[in-house]
Design a protein that fits this description.
By secondary structure, this protein is mainly α. It has 4 helices and no strands.
């Protein structure tokens, strides 16, 4: 099952504040990995989208699978901001 990384910044701030520095390290690790692998994430997403289209899935499903421009960056930038605000 895919990890849902949605949620508002206030939601993530609550999580970080609740779990302290351990959560900060994990969140920074996710942010760093997302930033370092942004191109790979997009490439793999494009391959997933192509596979889904070739399999004949509905356009609405393919549309939801497709990463929007800037989505990966939004995830890691938000994580950096939240850890900065929280600490």
């Amino acid at each position: 099952m895919p990890l849902n990384v949605g949620g508002s910044p206030s939601y993530w701030l609550t999580i970080v504040l609740s779990f302290g520095c351990c959560c900060k390290r994990i969140l920074l690790g996710v942010a760093n990995a997302s930033e370092e692998n942004e191109d790979l994430i997009r490439t793999q997403n494009e391959a997933d989208v192509a596979t889904t289209q070739d399999a004949g899935y509905e356009k609405s499903l393919v549309s939801r699978l497709t990463l929007k421009p800037g989505k990966v960056a939004l995830v890691y930038i938000s994580a950096y901001i939240i850890t900065t605000i929280a600490y």
